[in-house]
Specification:
It comes from Pyxicephalus adspersus (African bullfrog). By secondary structure, this protein is of the alpha+beta class. The chain folds into 2 domains: 49 residues, no CATH class; 137 residues, Immunoglobulins (Immunoglobulin-like), CATH 2.60.40.10. 26% of the residues lie in helices and 41% in strands. The longest helix has 39 residues. It is rod-shaped and about 125 Å long.
């Protein structure tokens, strides 16, 4: 009797194990079939009771390449990419940088006054016209230019007029005189031809008088100079009185460094 009960118990246990194995195999098959069904199921958007197929991927789960530039990605408001990162600091630094650049541009490009200084007379050559009682002179003068700008200055024109006793005795005009380099000085020589005749013919006797060693006369020199730089034009004038010897050639050595 005992052996019969044991055999019956073993049979029941085997049947239960077999039954459990079949159930697990059925569940595994059902799971695989479910995955295949899910893979074939289109992507849908659930909105309450009804459902709508995803318009961007048309239910395929993939976005077409030609529509990539037409779609917009939604970013949460709390995303760090939407939060300003030191915006005020960057704005302040940008403003300071712009002000610094503008200040430097104004400092270097702001036009400064070009200094013009009379360097005196360097040389005088004399010729006598005995027949017409005329004294001809060639007076070479010097002008000193000082450029305080950070760019070159062009001396476009120079006009010099010489008078004796309110009578114009010579005029000289030059163009494209010279170019003065930045932050430098330059000396420019120019020659004016003078003629003492007509109403001033009496000076012929004075200038040729042998009993007088120095035949100095005073002349009034008015010089006008025009400059141009970076689209700006300016003008400077000088008025001086000079002594010249009308009786003989004379040369004066000028100290350029003193100018």
């Amino acid at each position: 009797m005992g052996s019969t009960i044991s055999a019956y118990t073993s049979c029941v246990t085997s049947m239960k194990q077999a039954s459990n194995t079949n159930v697990e195999e059925d569940d595994l098959l059902d799971g695989r079939d479910g995955e295949e069904d899910i893979a074939q199921f289109p992507y849908v958007e659930f909105t309450g009771r009804d459902s709508i197929t995803c318009p961007s991927c048309q239910g395929t789960g993939c976005i077409p390449t030609e529509q990539v530039n037409e779609l917009v990605a939604l970013i949460p408001y709390s995303d760090q990419r939407l939060q300003p990162q030191r915006t005020k600091l960057y704005v302040v630094l940008s403003i300071l940088m712009c002000l610094l650049i503008c200040g430097l541009v104004v400092f270097f490009l702001f036009p400064r006054t070009v200094g013009v200084q009379d360097g005196g007379i360097r040389m005088v050559k004399v010729w006598f016209d005995k027949e017409n009682s005329i004294v001809n002179l060639a007076m070479t003068s010097t002008l000193g230019f000082t450029n305080s700008n950070f760019y070159s200055i062009s001396v476009d024109s120079l006009i010099s007029q010489v008078q004796y006793m309110n009578t114009v005795i010579g005029t000289q005009q030059q163009t494209n005189v010279s170019v003065v380099q930045p932050l430098s000085e330059k000396l420019v020589n120019f020659t004016v031809k003078l003629e003492l005749g007509g109403s001033l013919s009496y000076l012929y006797n004075f200038c040729t008088l042998s009993s007088v060693k120095v035949h100095n006369i005073v002349v009034f020199v008015r010089t006008s100079v025009k400059f141009s730089y970076i689209g700006h034009t300016s003008q400077s004038s000088l008025e001086t009185y000079q002594y010249i010897d009308c009786g003989a050639n004379s040369t004066l050595l000028v100290d350029h460094h003193a100018l």
